[in-house]
Amino acid sequence: MNEQQLQKIKSADGFIAALDQSGGSTPKALALYGVESDAYSGDDEMFAKVHEMRTRIIKSPSFGGDRIVGAILFENTMDRQIDGQDTAEFLWSQKQVVPFLKCDKGLADEANGAQVMKPMPDLDDLLGRAVGKGVFGTKMRSVIKEANEAGVNAVVDQQFEVGHQILGHGLVPIIEPEVDINSATKAEAEALLRSRLLEHANKLDHPIMLKLTLPEEDNFYRELVEHENVLRVVALSGGYSRDEANRRLSLNNGVIASFSRALSQGLTAQLTDEEFDGALNESIASIFAASIT
Predict the structure, then answer these.
(1) Residues acting as catalytic residues
(2) Of 54, 55, 249, 292, which residue is the least packed, with the fewest Cβ within 10 Å?
(3) Do 292 and 203 belong together in one domain?
(4) Residue 187 above 80 pLDDT?
């Protein structure tokens, strides 16, 4: 593990940029960017288009390690290059941004008010490639839709089981048990989630990271933020607008952003480079400010 990267993630001011839309969410991400489906044909062209978008964001003068501590990549992005360097290598060597990899394969069908992750039979191979490309850690997402103890426990238990596999490769897992912001029992689900997360965190031998939905109660996850086995707690925007996500984030001290849609909100392919860099700078500045409370 890279000690410089570890210290940056642990203590530097800033936030994590989530640039990890995968196959299912890529067309939507491109549409929001102003690239409609008739602009590409098939997956290869689609992924090439989204890599152009991510490259434009990463290479922007507004995007750097002074305000962004890490970036989460989709596997396809990890396997591509920017200016002749592997994307993860470019992020660290040129931008001083720590690279992470989204490693899950999507969600299983809902059971007990939750969706665990689909099986990942090739995970060890993927993690080995990630290590070879200089990736620091991983991210994997499950979703909790109801305050159902069996569902919450299934999500958290699976996340930590896979997390131990990831730790075995010398990578730091970001465990992401997202609580749906539209859940009718969101606060109750968060109470169940916090309890189960603390149970697992207390048993760890190596630190992990957590990516959590912004809670209904301010500083609700303080115990986890201050936990010796939790390297950092980051927040997802989860469908909140950037303004609302920033407002909620600023009320949760010690939690930093790991936004995707809220980060790229307002960025389009049609903007000039000057307009694009200005819009991205505005977005980064607002998320940074909310992340250092």
Answers:
(1) 176, 211
(2) 292
(3) no
(4) yes
Question: Which of 190, 207, 235 is the last residue before a domain boundary?
Answer: 235
The verdict on 157 and 83 lying in the same domain is: no
Cα distances from 30 to residues 53, 76, 137, in angstroms, run 8, 15, 26
Q: Which two tokens stand for residue 99?
A: 């690279």
Q: What is the dihedral angle through the alpha carbons of 90, 94, 100, 101, rounded to the nearest 10 degrees?
A: -20
- For residue 38, how far is the Cα from the chain centroid? 29
pLDDT value for 230: 98
pLDDT digits (tens, 9 = 90+) for 55-91: 999 999 999 999 999 999 999 999 999 999 999 999 9
In contact, 284 and 16? CB cutoff 8 Å: no
**Nearest-angstrom CA–CA distance, 282 and 262:** 12
Residue-averaged pLDDT of the chain = 96
Residue 276 lies in a domain: yes
Which residues make beta-bridge pairs with 138?
A: 101, 173
Going by DSSP bridges, is the β-strand pair 208-213/98-102 parallel, antiparallel, or unpaired?
Answer: unpaired
Q: What pLDDT is stored for residue 1 in this prediction?
A: 74
User: Where does a domain end: 200, 218, 235?
Assistant: 235
Same domain, 109 and 209: yes
Q: Is the pTM of this model over 0.70?
A: yes
